[in-house]
Amino acid sequence: MERIDKTVFLSYRRTNAPWALAVSQNLTFHGYDVFFDFNGIASGDFESVILGNIRARAHFIVLLTPSALERTGEPGDWLRREIEMALEIKRNIVPLMLEGFDFNTPTIASQLTGKLATLRSYNALRVPVEFFEEAMDRLCKRYLNIALDTVLHPASPEARQAAVAEQAAVSAAPAVTSKELTAQEWFERGFNVTDADEKIHYYSEAIRLKHDYPEAYYNRGLAKYQKGDMDGALADSEQAISLRQDYADYFTARGNARKAKSDLAGALKDYDEAIRLKPSSSEPFYNRGIVRRASGDTEGALRDYDEAIRLKPEFAYAFYNRAQIWKQKDQPAAAIADYQKYLDLGGGERDGDTEQVEGYIRDLKNKL
Q1: Which residues of the chain have pLDDT under 70?
Q2: Over the stretch 264-303, which tens digit does the pLDDT of each residue have?
Q3: What is this structure's pTM?
Q4: Is residue 188 within 8 Å of 99, Cβ to Cβ?
Q5: CATH class of this structure's domain 3-172
Q6: I need a labelling partner for 182 at 20 to 30 A (CA). Which of 195, 209, 212, 355 fits?
């Protein structure tokens, strides 16, 4: 006989932590056994705990915002892995669409590749801040209150222990306020626009409502960098780091601002820390290569470009910069190969320098 099951796995991006906490607290109040990675699972146990709890729970809720899918194209992205696991083992998947999320938005549609494309076919629920309680009531009564014949797999002792610890932390956490959720809405609006001034306005509103919002400081800093305000970019990246010291991208952003302000030593330190925190990211290697070359460390720059390309084989600018070094070292064959790869990857078309690079290639061929 089919049964009504009240076990839930909540999947979310860290930028949407207040939303995830609010949903978890509400479902727990209504008698659901909810697991979500609230405090952060230790890296050594992460895979067994997360995947084990997906297997052990009937319902899979995924929070969708414009920022949520940003990294799903990266190798090993955990949000993608969680969704793919839920699809594979046929859990009752409920996408919750939060501020600004629309499956038809081009930037969002471009992230829904592979198995993630099937998310469109699921009955999603929109959750506006002003009608949060009503949306949660609908979630419980219509989306989760259904008979299931899903085969659940017993969780391992580690997965059960982690679930108990995370649930205790959620219970002890203060209730999420509407002010925090409104800050999330402003953040997603900023993420969803392209104009730098609009971004700065939206992120500033998010920060006004939630002063300890590292993602908003980080993203506002990126917008200021885009506008050429390096002092503002540096200040925002420093504020983001002060609130969260374990996020590699914040150090990369500060390194970029320091590099733009000619603080090469400071930039190197930031890129070193970003690489330590996230050695699988190509960007800090690429940027460290630029700084090392500017500092006269050509061999170090070559090693960094090599690693950036290994991590991201389609990294056109890394090929271009490496070609510049090969050209400087009078190694025409290697330089030609990298310049050509830059063109093949569309770098010349994007930057409008195709003719110039083709000229470099012709000159280098004359040296062979």
Answers
A1: 1-3, 40-44, 75, 150-151, 153
A2: 999 999 999 999 999 999 999 999 999 999 999 999 999 9
A3: 0.84
A4: yes
A5: alpha beta
A6: 195
